[in-house]
Design goal:
Length: about 200
């Protein structure tokens, strides 16, 4: 594997069978009529080597990197960590690895659940926009972003509305209108982890 743009690439020596067993993308690359089959090198020039390293950790160790001391992180550190998990989800989507996608969303949901739901502990407007720019309309990642925002006060949403992409605001409006109930707690937590897991 060669990951990253020219000049900042990193090489990963990985077992083909393990990759192909997890990822439809790798299975096709190594068995199809692609140049990667002949060269035995798959190139991902648009991807971040650090995020790909998280993927390698997941497929070899069976666990994602997670934030361990939630309460001790600053809001900036927490947002950076959440962005890394969202980037991981988008990489897993590209690699067509459903298990990895599920792990990424469960990590985001779990970490948000552990934190108090202060506004600075929700996915930032930049993270929401990144998710929306890099996923399709039916993405469970988008659904999670919306559900995490449903318990935020309306005034806070309105104050942030100029920084939020239109598709997210439309999805959020529908969610607030149709899904909010009298139950306490965030909608993402009430739904549970299976709501954001694709069938294997």
């Amino acid at each position: 594997m060669r990951v990253g743009p020219e000049g900042s690439q990193e090489d990963f020596l990985l077992h083909e069978g393990i990759l192909a067993g997890r990822s439809d993308f790798f299975r096709r690359a190594m068995n199809g009529n692609w140049s990667e089959k002949k060269d035995r090198v798959v190139k991902l020039p648009e991807d971040d080597p650090k995020i790909f390293a998280f993927y390698v950790n997941l497929i070899y160790m069976g666990a994602m990197y997670t934030q361990t001391e939630y309460q001790k992180t600053t809001p900036v550190e927490f947002q950076a960590h959440t962005l890394a998990n969202v980037k991981f989800y988008i990489l897993a989507q590209k690699l067509q690895d459903t298990q990895a996608k599920n792990s990424a969303l469960e990590t985001v949901r779990t970490e948000m659940r552990v934190m108090s739901f202060a506004a600075d502990r929700l996915p930032s407007t930049e993270i929401v926009e990144f998710m929306y720019k890099n996923t399709s309309k039916d993405s469970l990642g988008r659904r999670l972003m919306v559900d995490l925002w449903t318990d935020v006060g309306t005034k806070w949403i309105l104050d942030k509305s100029e920084d939020l992409c239109r598709d997210f605001l439309v999805d959020l409006a529908y969610s607030l209108h149709g899904e909010r109930t009298a139950h306490s707690g965030n909608l993402a937590n009430r739904k549970g982890y299976t709501a954001y897991q694709e069938k294997l």
